[in-house]
Every structure is written in C-alpha cells, then in structure tokens.
Design goal:
7 strands; two-stranded antiparallel sheet; alpha+beta; 8 helices; five-stranded mixed sheet; Nonspecific Lipid-transfer Protein, Chain A; Four Helix Bundle (Hemerythrin (Met), subunit A); 12% strand
C-alpha cells in the first residue's frame, strides 16, 4: 500500500528516531522498569532496540530469505555491561549510546544501498526492503515513546510520521498473516460488525514534497474473519478523539484510554477489548 513518506525519509527517520531515543534514555536510569513494557528495564529495552537494528541491517545486507540467528548478527546482545559504581553506570550508558547510534547507521546505510523493491525475508506480506525501512522507523519511534513515559518527559512526533505509524499498525493487524499467527485476534470475532473511530483534532499537514496531507481519521470494523479499516469520518460504536500524538499513544497502548488527553466516546468495553487483544506477541 502506498505510504505518505518516501523510502529515503524512512531511512532518515531510523537515524533520527534512534538519536531521540538515545537522548531520552539519558533522562532515565538503566535499571528502571519501563511502565509500558513492564517485563523490561530501560537497559533491556535499549538492548532490544539495538538488537533489532542490527538484525534488520543483516537481513538487508544478505538479502536474506529467512531470519538470521542471533549469533549471525554482529554486535548482537549489546556492549558488555559493567557493574558496581556510578562511574561504571555512566560508562554503561555511554557504551549503549554509541552501540545504538552505530546500529541505526548500519541499517540505514544498508537500506540506502538497496533498491526499495529488493525481495527479502520480512515475516509479513510485503517481502521487500521498503517494508523494513518503514517498520524499523516506527519500531524505534514507539520505543522512544516508552522511554519518554519512563522518564516522565513530553513525547513529540511529526504528525505525518504519527499518522503513518497508525496506518502501518492497522495494515499489520488486518493482514491475513496476523490472523494466522496472532491467536488473540480471534477474540474480536465476538464483536463482529462493531466499529472504532480514531479522530485527530489537530492538523497533520502534508509530507515534504507532496501536496496532500494524510488523513487524520480512521474507521476500524471488526469482522468474523479479521479486521477491516479505512480512512474517513463516520459514526462508530466507540471513538477516540484528541491530538494525533495522543490518539496514537492510546491506540498503541502507551497511554491509558482513561487519560484526560483524549476523549473516549461510546462503548468503552469495545475499546478495552481491542487494546487487550491487539498487540505484538
């Protein structure tokens, strides 16, 4: 499906979102639990992001037909972890920072050297390099949100990128592969025919080099055989209304739907069911 951003922009965003992620990490301590990913400490989340960057760099470099094993990925697992004094903790943060920066540059460099339509393993329906440029940019973006929640600092994102992040998430969870590999989605069938509406109240604006702004409204319909969605305004069983960044954060489970930053109108149980069942597993 066409996106609102160019391949080159996604490559740039991988580096930029990683830079902002690294900056946000410095406002935390590495041993702190991440509220939105409670199974991780900040350090474990940082290693997850860095491992992801390096793994995809290796997939693109090899034009791989399957996911590489961790031992095939240079630098997998992060830098060695010093223990003990505060000075060593600072050294750990610095080493992670450099490791993350190098990982972002590595995957962006490999993608820039690869034609967008080059076939390779992705694990999803779209098996081309362009899938990874978009997926990696949004993966880092959402973990930057996790870091911002942990540090209790404001999270800001370009509205065009935020809108595209919502598009990508809906494309993933509505795909046939999602229904095949995410058993939890079958629980949505009990509410077949129900609808959710996302409505951003602020302006998205046009992406650079384009004349048309991406839509800032989404209508999601639950069906027996999966999920359908489209852009547009319509009455729904439940609506989430607010600034685009906050709508994104609620729909990606980084803000609770009870936050005062958005309005939830209608069937709140339907929204709770969606948020409970529609997640990465």
């Amino acid at each position: 499906m066409p996106t609102s951003l160019t391949y080159e922009r996604y490559c740039d965003e991988i580096v930029e979102q990683t830079r902002q992620f690294r900056d946000t990490l410095r406002s935390t301590t590495l041993g702190t639990q991440v509220p939105t990913c409670p199974e991780w400490t900040v350090r474990e989340m940082a290693v997850h992001v860095g491992d992801y960057l390096r793994t995809i760099a290796e997939v693109v470099r090899r034009r791989a037909s399957e996911a590489p094993a961790s031992e095939q990925v240079p630098g997998f697992g992060g830098p060695a972890r010093p223990v003990g004094t505060e000075v060593e903790a600072d050294a750990d943060m610095q080493a992670l920072d450099e490791w993350l920066a190098a990982g972002a540059e590595a995957v962006a460099e490999q993608l820039r050297a690869t034609a967008p339509d080059t076939p390779m393993w992705t694990g999803f329906m779209d098996r081309r390099a362009r899938f990874w440029a978009r997926r990696v940019a949004h993966e880092v973006l959402m973990h930057r949100a996790d870091a911002a929640v942990t540090a209790d600092i404001e999270f800001e994102v370009d509205p065009v990128l935020a809108a595209d992040c919502l598009d990508e998430w809906l494309e993933i969870v509505s795909s046939p592969l999602a229904m095949e590999h995410r058993p939890s989605l079958a629980g949505l069938a009990a509410r077949s025919g129900s609808t959710l509406h996302l409505h951003a109240t602020d302006s998205v604006g046009a992406a650079p080099g384009t004349d048309e702004a991406p839509s800032a409204e989404w209508l999601v319909t639950l069906r027996q055989d999966g999920i359908a969605w489209q852009h547009g305004h319509a009455k729904a069983d439940v609506a989430v209304r607010g600034p685009l960044t906050d709508v994104l954060l609620v729909f990606q489970r980084r803000l609770p739907p009870t936050t005062e930053r958005v309005q939830v109108l209608g069937d709140t149980e339907l929204l709770d069911l969606w948020l409970d069942l529609v997640r990465f597993e």
